[in-house]
Amino acid sequence: MCGICGYIGKNNGVGKVVEGLKILEYRGYDSCGIAYIENNKLKLVKTIEGVDELYNLTCDKSSNFVIGHTRWATHGGVSEKNAHPHISSSKKLAMVHNGIIENYRELKDKLDANYYSETDSEVFLNLIDSKSGDLLTKVIDASKEVKGTFAIIILSEDGEIVLGKRESPLYLSNVGDELYIASDILALSGENFYTLKDDEFARIKNFEISFYNKNKEKIHKKQEKIKKNEAFLENFYKTHMENEIFETKNVLLKTLKEYENEAIFSKIKLPKNLKSISLIACGTAYHASLMGAEYFKEVGIDARAYLASEFRYGRELLNKNTLYIFVSQSGETADTIAAAKLVKSHKLNTLALTNTPNSLLNRICKNVLPTFAGREIAVASTKAYSCQVWSLYLFSLYLAGKKLPSERANSNFPFINFDEKFIKEIASYKKVFFIGRDLDYITAMEASLKLKEITYINCFAIASGELKHGTLALIDKDAVVIAICTQEKIKTKLLSNLEEIKARGGKVIVVSQFDDFKDFSCVKLSKFDELFMPIVSVIPMQFLALKICELFGYNPDKPRNLAKSVTVE
Ligand code: M6R
Q1: CA 22, 24, 27, 28 torsion-angle sign
Q2: 420-552: same fold as 240-410?
């Protein structure tokens, strides 16, 4: 989703900001741009052709004051005029904005300004410009009237900069006489950084930085150390997604090593009388949470997973004996953050299971249990999912007082390379279904999400036992059913389901470690402990999605309409 970068310093900041935007590309965006000061005038360069094109358009520019943005369209289509930065009606201020201004229509009606875009952001900018006082006063006064979320940088034509935030992250770092600003720590330079809390602001004037609260009082801020989250392999493979799938084995081992002496678990403050666990997340992290809930139940702890976007508006009875685990690769997902804030406001026990050390979710939750998947760049989550499942499994063992496994993840992983014929065959079907029972049903959901998000095939997952309650009506010669079976107890029942599909002309492919499915096409898995099999079986499903995506000629790292961090609700 949207990304912000800024530079103020004695050197040329244009290339530095474009480089920062390049780092933020992985979050997903559809247009980008920069604003800078040249001869005391604000200049804009914007494009819908991507950051590489922005580089071509700006490589001969130079400025000490630069702000940049990658936009993920919400209000107004993808166009240069809607791309950020925006310029105020008076042409004196430029702005980049992450977030959403919910009351922008009402504000727009009240303001007397010219508009050049359809965005909510431009309304916020003109509201700021309409206020009186110095730039800091204008920004703080305007922020009191907006409803919604924001991380903003305002650049005035005389080189003053004010930034502020509410619910959307914004960081600064100071390297010698250079200041860097970014919405993602990855795009910052230096070793240390400052973080803005909600409704805090910073002013940069004459290269000096000062911080303020919403009452315009000066506040003191301490720097924090940037924690690195290194990936393990150089990019040996064609795409980030492929590279990241191949990193799975390393990151599982790294996680096991980090958890080994249990110190990381013993720091977690559990409810005094732990009775249940609620796991709350979105997308792939929700699937990991479903799996986690099964692991906790396996060791006798009542558990349930919730979609974060539903949890907020549901009727859940919050309980002091429950541990609330928020699972998120990025630690920035707006729905998950909103749910965590809700639970926190009731002073209940929260734990962030994230892959991003300095994330917002980590700051909100009382406890943090890190996953060690390293940086995940591809939009489609792969190694981070496996790591989340693995971490939840290990945590369940710890809670049950059981020994953690030592070398389980050290054996051969089934990095199955489907042959071209098999990929082509599956890709030729109009309808793709994933089925499974129990843990395999959860893997089926994740397999289906992976396939749809990067191949755009209309597919869905269904519990095998539910097929006969309606969906069987869709099975004919145009349907392929991928059945996952890794649990001994469901083998026989699944065989009957498969016969029903075959009888209706549907193609069946079984993904299993068992030898019982000889009458069907099979993807053979290596054999591990059954509770570990969900990690083994998801890998060929991730590969399947990747290979079909490549066959169709799409870029798996940049799927349409998706962003790596979904920072809007
Ligand atoms: O960063 P998070 O784990 O909170 O992200 C949650 C989902 O947006 C994410 O898992 C999404 O479903 C992935 N693109 C799936 O591959």
Answers
A1: negative
A2: yes
Three-state secondary structure string covering 224-281: EECCCCCCCCCCCCCCHHHHHHHCHHHHHHHHHHHHCCCHHHHCCCCCCCCCEEEEEE
Cα separation, 477 vs 199, in Å, equals 58
Coil/strand/helix, residue 440 = helix
The DSSP bridge pattern shows strands 31-38 and 41-47 to be antiparallel
By the 8 A CB rule, do 433 and 471 touch?
yes
H helix or E strand, kind and range, residue 323: strand 322-328
> Residue 378 is encoded by which pair of tokens?
């591809």
Handedness of CA 308, 309, 312, 316 (dihedral sign): negative
* CB atoms near residue 206 (< 10 Å): 7
Atom number of ligand 1 nearest to Cα 281: 4
Please state which CATH number belongs to domain 420-552.
Answer: 3.40.50.10490
Catalytic residues, by residue number, are 2, 564
Position in ligand 1 atom list of the atom nearest CA 354: 3
Tell me the residue type at 342.
L
Instruction: Tell me what pLDDT residue 75 has.
Output: 82
Pocket flag, ligand 1, residue 330 (CB < 6 Å): yes
* Per-residue pLDDT, 232: 42
pLDDT of 229 above 60? no
Domain 240-410 fold is: Rossmann fold (3.40.50)
Is this structure's pTM higher than 0.70?
A: yes
The overall average pLDDT reported for the chain is: 91
Assigned CATH for 3-225? 3.60.20.10
3-state SS of 201-237 is: EEEEECCEEEEECCCCCEECCCCEECCCCCCCCCCCC
Q: Which band of pLDDT confidence, cut at 50, 70 and 90, is reported for residue 565?
A: confident
| Per-domain boundaries in the chain | 3-225, 240-410, 420-552
- Helix or strand (DSSP H, E) at 354: strand 349-354
Planar angle of CA 301, 307, 308, nearest 5 degrees: 105
**Å from CA of 285 to ligand 1 middle:** 6
User: Rounded to an integer, what distance in angstroms lies between the CA atom of residue 65 and that of residue 53?
Assistant: 21
